[in-house]
Write a structure and sequence with these properties.
14 strands, Metallo-beta-lactamase, Chain A, 7-stranded mixed beta sheet, alpha/beta, about 25% helix, 9 helices
Length: about 325
């Protein structure tokens, strides 16, 4: 298959092409929950301890998503009012990209590899930010792929189409690998989705990558295991990290919006392959995190994306709230 490198315009066209993905008229621009850019770059990594394990969140950058990526089944006026009330744009969804590096002492595990140079020009910063954080990519022993969407896997290979971390063990859910590599899939999906399939296949087949395929409960290394969280994609996996009595749930894209998906767990988006499964998985994860008081990392949450899940006792139904973790300087 040819190597395709869609532009930002291509990706927004992809999201707008299907009737269910169509962007709608927006409310007037509201005050945004964002500050002006700094004169100099901010650090793009954040470290904390989890028992005897050290965790570093490393950014790959950010990119815009259409409004249909959040609550395409929601009342449009309600959704726009929700975004405005939270000081968020009513024109696009801004997704940060928070990668997790897990240092157990005997292994160093990276979750997802970003989009490299093949996606938006505001992303693809993972390797440079790893170096800034003092993490040599060659020291990474295991790479876990939550799923094969562009922003999670297209950075697996360099400009010479070789693996960026050739000596690592690469792990993916067996169902996820099977879906994207299914013979003839590219000819069965809608034309605007073909680039996703080609990009996933090119990435999975990158030179120097050998795959370990696992299912629910697969142990990557002691203290790091896969959790089956399908819905967003057919074989999506999240990651549970444990050290002693401490735990951390790496959500991947099982929950993508730190406000909308907590307050409205039944909202699904244009990129969710199975809306019913997506919602069921999200509710299960949020309930588990709130009940067990396990902190979470959201890939697209505002950087660094680490926080807690609190039940919204004042709200109706099974609503939750995201509580960002307090930094320790």
């Amino acid at each position: 298959m040819p190597i395709l490198r869609p532009t930002r315009r291509d990706m927004l066209r992809y999201a707008a092409a299907m009737p269910a993905f169509a962007l709608t008229a927006h409310m007037p621009h509201a005050l945004r929950a964002e500050l002006g850019p700094p004169a100099e770059a901010n650090p793009a990594h954040f470290r904390f301890a989890l028992g005897d394990t050290n965790v570093t969140i490393v950014s790959d950058g950010w990119f815009p998503q259409p409004l249909s990526s959040l609550g395409m089944n929601a009342d449009e006026a309600q959704k726009l009012a929700f975004l405005e009330a939270h000081y968020l744009s009513t024109e696009e969804i801004v997704g940060h990209t928070n990668h997790v590096v897990i240092d157990t002492g005997s292994a160093r595990v990276l979750v997802d590899v970003g989009s490299g140079s093949r996606f938006f020009d505001t992303a693809g910063r993972l390797l440079s930010n790893l170096e800034t954080a003092g993490i040599d990519p060659a020291s990474i022993t295991h790479v876990v792929l939550t799923h094969a969407h562009p922003d999670h896997i297209w950075g697996i290979r360099d400009d010479f189409d070789e693996a960026i971390i050739p000596d690592a063990e690469y792990i993916m859910g067996e169902a996820e690998h099977g879906y994207w590599t299914e013979e003839g899939l590219v000819d069965r999906v809608a034309p605007e989705a073909q680039q996703f399939v080609v990009g996933a296949v090119n990435s999975i087949n990158a030179e120097g990558v050998e795959w370990t395929l696992g299912g629910d409960g697969h142990e990557v290394v002691p203290g790091v295991k896969l959790i089956a969280t399908h819905g967003h994609t057919p074989g999506h996996m999240s990651v549970m990290v444990t050290s002693g009595d401490k735990g951390l749930l790496v959500l991947g894209d099982a929950v993508t919006h730190a406000y909308g998906h907590f307050a409205h767990p039944d909202w699904y988006g244009s990129m969710d392959s199975d809306p019913e499964a997506t919602v069921a998985t999200r509710k299960r994860l949020l309930d588990m995190a709130a009940t067990d008081r396990v902190p979470v990392v959201g890939y697209h949450f505002p950087f660094p994306g680490v926080g807690h899940v609190m039940r919204d006792t004042e709200g109706a139904g099974d609503a939750f709230a995201f509580v960002p973790a307090l930094w320790r300087f």
